[in-house]
Automatic annotation (TrEMBL), chain A:
Database matches in Pfam families: ER_lumen_recept
A GO term, aspect molecular function: ER retention sequence binding
GO biological processes: protein retention in ER lumen; protein transport; vesicle-mediated transport
UniProt keyword list: Cytoplasmic vesicle, Endoplasmic reticulum, ER-Golgi transport, Membrane, Protein transport, Receptor, Transmembrane, Transmembrane helix, Transport
Protein name (record): ER lumen protein-retaining receptor
Localization: Cytoplasmic vesicle, COPI-coated vesicle membrane; Endoplasmic reticulum membrane; Golgi apparatus membrane
Length: 212, 10
């Protein structure tokens, strides 16, 4: 565990909690892509099946349970409790265009052709693109609430910090996982455009709105 | 099983 890994995890946790609190406090999930949240719930579920088969550390187990629990809670708030506020008309990204190719790729490119390993690989690939419905929704409506942009910032920052963590681990531990690294690079690149808008607009006190 | 990557990351 190095500082980049730890801050990455905490950044991920911050993102998840910001989103939950935003929905809970405002009693509304307006502007949030339920599809992205379902994809993240799928990501955590398929990745953390090893909760049942392997014990790594108390930290590892607790974080996994928190991530899974929060992601299902978020999906519940969007599709059940505050369903009336869900903006389904703007959440029109076709998720099958992500899930099907990602599923195929995880069968083709993996570390080991076993069910748990393929599901883990699926989760890594899916996570890389799971934010696309949310970004698509923002590009469609042309704006995002500031709190939503904070959520996206921490979510993007998390994988960027993991990239530094992987460089660190390669140099100091000789550890690297090519699948995670390539997917993590793709994932981080998808946020670059957003990071630019976040720094040039949101951090200067302006609302994130895109030119028509 | 030794060369399997460990899944200690989240």
């Amino acid at each position: 565990m190095n500082i980049f890994r730890l801050t990455g995890d905490l950044s991920h946790l911050a993102a998840i909690i910001i989103l939950l609190l935003k929905i809970w406090k405002s009693r509304s999930c307006a502007g949030i892509s339920g599809k992205s949240q379902i994809l993240f719930a799928m990501v955590f579920t398929t990745r953390y099946l090893d909760l049942l088969t392997a014990y790594i550390s108390l930290y590892n187990t607790s974080m996994k349970i928190i991530y899974i629990g929060c992601s299902y809670a978020t999906v519940y708030l969007i599709y059940a409790k505050f369903k009336a506020t869900y903006d389904g008309n703007h959440d029109t990204f076709r998720v099958e265009f992500l899930v099907v190719p990602v599923g195929g790729l995880s069968f083709l490119v993996n570390h080991d052709f076993s069910p748990l390993e393929i599901l883990w690989t699926f989760s890594i690939y899916l996570e890389a693109v799971a934010i696309l419905p949310q970004l698509f929704m923002i590009s469609k409506t042309g704006e995002a609430e500031t709190i939503t942009t904070h959520y996206l910032f921490f979510l993007g920052l998390y994988r960027a910090l993991y990239l530094i963590n992987w460089v660190w681990r390669f140099y100091f531990e000789g550890f690297f996982d090519m699948i995670a690294i390539v997917a993590g690079v793709v994932q981080t690149i998808l946020y670059c455009d957003f990071f630019y808008l976040y720094v040039t607009k949101v951090l200067k006190g302006k609302k994130l709105s895109l030119p028509a | 099983e030794e060369d399997k990557p460990t899944k200690d990351e989240l």
